[in-house]
Write a structure and sequence with these properties.
By secondary structure, the protein is mainly α. The protein is built from 18 helices and 5 strands. The protein starts with 8 loop residues before the first helix and ends in a 6-residue tail after the last helix.
Length: 440
């Protein structure tokens, strides 16, 4: 316990996260309030809602009153009733008003991760007045990357001045003398988090102000908040891409029942989808009986189509996230993927033909008297399947985005399942055309 007093907030948060909820609550009760607040202000702490539900209401209120506004709102989003309502009524009125305002914004909006703790000054102040003001309010502000200059009468945003320019400016000069000539980069509160991430990355900002239609600054989104949001978003996308519902807590803290619920749904959907593969094979039962050699290459055919589709899906999902492509670019993507798939299919087809030829010539396996036609069938089928897989894998994210779903839901297993079924149809269709009159 003693080693936690005065420790870094991230280190205290790690200890609390590893402890059971009741044990973590006991630790928080014994910690100095300042140290507990440092831990609760960490974006990586996942046990905050559970702890706040277990500690005395007065202590919970003190913690929430002292935390940064964006982190407080995030904790409230994770709280369940009746704890949520009880804690909301226990915090200070100004904190309650801020929380209610932040909770009003959609969880996917930039405003959901903004902080209302920023420094704003009127445009008629001098640099000396601004620096004195920063010294007075610094401890009550999450960050002071920039000072936001507003119109004294309308309270609308005029400029953003970095702390560096203020420190190097003439103390007796007006604050606008330290402002850059260009207008500040801003974003609307209801814009998506991805847009805030894009602008901060594009303009190399430490913070971006959120300005409403009247020009009033509502809050700021800082680069550390963006990084935290990116980590969570990418984690959820990776999990969904693997055919798993996004986990709400770290892997080791997820209960057995929750683990089953997160994984069983998609697994059952994929399993049912794979049943179509069996149905497709049953449709070609006669061909399989007459040319049993074709079954040797079914795993090869299916995996090649699924792999090509997964590659295309991964590329397009990332391109959509980075806004390198938009929904209206679907036809341009299709025109790129068709020749790409054909070329990749030819590459794999040649490898497949060479492999069958070598095995036949070197005596590793006898594919029968018509082995050349079998090799041609495999090679030609690979061209068609890889092309179809690339085109399908690239178009599926566009379709899901158009329908309002997360493109990450076009997970690699889902694409592979879709391509498996159609791949079999293509494979046996090619076989019927090439092997007709010989094996078939």
């Amino acid at each position: 316990m003693k080693r936690l007093i005065g420790a870094r907030g991230a280190d205290i948060a790690d200890v609390l996260d590893r402890a059971k909820p009741d044990e973590a609550a006991a630790i928080v009760e014994r910690l100095p309030l300042e140290d507990a607040v440092k831990a609760f202000d960490q974006p990586g702490i996942d046990c905050a809602p559970a702890i706040l539900s277990r500690v005395p209401r007065a202590l919970a209120a003190d913690l929430l009153n002292a935390m940064s506004s964006d982190r407080t709102a995030e904790v409230f989003r994770s709280l369940d009733e009746p704890a949520r309502g009880e804690l909301l009524s226990a915090v200070a009125p100004d904190v309650r008003a801020t929380i209610e305002r932040l909770l009003h914004y959609p969880a996917s909006s930039a405003a959901s991760i903004m902080t209302t703790e920023f420094v704003a000054v009127p445009s008629d102040w001098t640099i000396a007045q601004v620096l004195d003001h920063i010294r007075m309010v610094e401890r009550s502000r999450e960050t002071v990357y920039s000072v936001y200059v507003v119109d004294p009468a309308e309270n609308t945003l005029i400029q953003a001045v970095t702390l560096r320019r203020l420190l190097s400016g003439d103390p007796d000069a007006g604050v606008l003398s330290a402002a850059p000539e260009r207008a500040p980069v801003t974003i609307e509160p209801l814009a998506g988090r991805e847009e805030a991430m894009r602008l901060i990355a594009k303009y190399d900002l430490l913070a971006i102000p959120l300005v409403d239609e009247q020009g009033h600054i509502q809050g700021i989104v800082t680069v550390d908040d963006v990084i935290d949001a990116m980590v969570k978003q990418q984690t959820a996308q990776v999990q969904r891409f693997g055919g798993v519902e996004a986990l709400d807590v770290p892997y080791l803290r997820l209960g057995f029942g929750a683990m089953i619920r997160k994984r069983a749904g998609w697994l059952c959907v994929l399993f049912v989808s794979e049943m179509l593969t069996a149905s497709a094979m049953q449709g070609f039962e006669g061909e399989l009986e007459r040319a049993i050699v074709l079954t040797l290459f079914i795993p090869l055919i299916m995996s090649s189509g699924g792999n090509s589709g997964s590659q295309a899906t991964s590329l397009i999902i990332r391109a959509l996230a980075l806004r390198e492509v938009t929904l209206k670019d679907w036809w341009r993507v299709a025109l790129r993927e068709i020749p790409t798939g054909l070329t990749l299919g030819v590459c794999l087809g040649v490898i497949g033909i060479v492999r069958i030829t070598l095995w036949q010539r070197l005596g590793f396996y006898n594919y029968g008297p018509h082995w050349q036609l079998v090799a041609l069938t495999v090679g030609t089928a690979l061209v068609g399947i890889v092309t179809f897989g690339s085109l399908t894998g690239s178009m599926l994210p566009f379709a899901l985005r158009r329908l309002g779903f997360d493109p990450a839901s076009a997970s690699a297993p889902f694409v592979a399942t879709l391509v498996d079924v159609t791949g079999l149809v293509i494979y046996f269709g090619v076989a019927a055309a090439i092997l007709h009159g010989t094996l078939l």
